[in-house]
Design goal:
With 493 residues, this protein is α/β, with parallel strands linked by helices. Helices cover 29% and strands 15% of the residues. Helix 2 (149-164) packs across helix 11 (388-400) and helix 9 (330-342) packs parallel to helix 10 (359-365).
Length: 493
Amino acid sequence: MRPLPRTALSATCVLLALLLAACGSRLDPQTVAGASGSSGTGGGATVPGADAAGPDGSLPAGGGGDAAAAGGGGAASAGATGGGGSAASGAGGGGSGDAPKGTGANAAAGGEKAGSCAGFKNQTGITDSTITIGNASDISGPVPGLFEAAPEAVRAYVAYFNATSDICGRKLTLASYDSRTDAAADQQAYVKGCDEAFAMVGSMSAFDSGGASTAQSCGLPDIRTAATTAERLSCTTCFAAEAANSQQFQNAVPDFVLKNYGDAGKHAAMLYINAGAAAENGKTQAAAMGKRGMHFDYVQGIDISEFNYAPYVQQMKDKGIEYVQIIGSTAQFTRLAEAMKQQGFKPKIFMIDPTAYNPDFVSSGGDAVEGTTVFINFTPFEEAGSNKELQLYLSWLQQVKPGATPSFFGLFAWSAARLFVQQATQLGGKLTRSALASSLKGVSNWTANGMHAPQPVGAKQASPCWRFIKLVSGRWTPIGGTKYQCSGTTSVG
């Protein structure tokens, strides 16, 4: 399996153990498996003991524990109502009575015209009353709960949808599979998905190559949170809410640096964790930004087992570095920031991809990470008041998992679920696995109602857009405005 670079995207321990190399780069499974300093909590983590939602997205009638199996039944079936109406409240984490229900484009079924239900046929994953979607994400493994935010977000969307809508008279049920941070487990999950689910939605796995050929061979549509390997990207029935391309890097980053920091971009350093795809990401990004006008005086890999970052900081001081970027995880980010502070080295800009947008980076880094700039391709949670779709994700997440922490991966998993519903609703009676996969090929500029930057889902290319936030007094604040800067991509190799 050859891991691809990937967007953070194009960003949480989801973000603790994750390598998101911005703009066209991809998750590095080796770094995920071996990243130090991860606790399994933080951005994207969940509160132990919180009540779980059932496979139809509704909450159990009593305390925690597993809800009914896919297909409905048991306490978990409470909360799903017929077309319209509201879900039952008070179950588990407080029910859905207090959660908002959007209108127009933000409605659970979307604002576009639904296709005619004439000719709708039951098939794999579809019965007279339900459509089963599956999610295979890394829940157990070296980093417990690594991508748990993904199925949580899909479950939240299922609950939202079932409270207000249906697809040709059918509610959604969710079958969850644990890919266990392992390619073989991912493959096993997709074997089950082929037999049990109509489509896979919002899956997120560090080693997602395992199920790629399985999904394609059975014609299973797979709308992922993001793809992490070349095998998954080449799968003809597989797509991702956060699109990417291994050899492209967005111009927005170097353009932002050169415009706002001038010559600092001419004296740049790129540090990366010397594991898996991280080295490729670092070199590719530095080369792409170099083509755009920046100059990197220092491009250096750091062994994942290295704890002394002082020599790297000294090298940057000696070379007169003014721009510093690092690709790794929270543990490495804070380690470098602390070493820079200890040696009195303060570059004009310390840049990190969306991986740094998580509570643990802020809390563990303290004063050392103050002033960090991060490029992101989604609406930050601090700005939820300005985006109705983000409000829906945050609210319904609490309905199905009280106390859950929203994350970058949860946001894009919610986006994947909305994309599935939109496409399935539009197809109506023409809905089949092959029709859905074919329809997804035509999806471009997907934003999930402004939750994130436009994504060329069907083309599987890197989105050209980023925006920037800066850590000021312990809070993330916009820098350079809140609009995305979309200035194309540069290809390398």
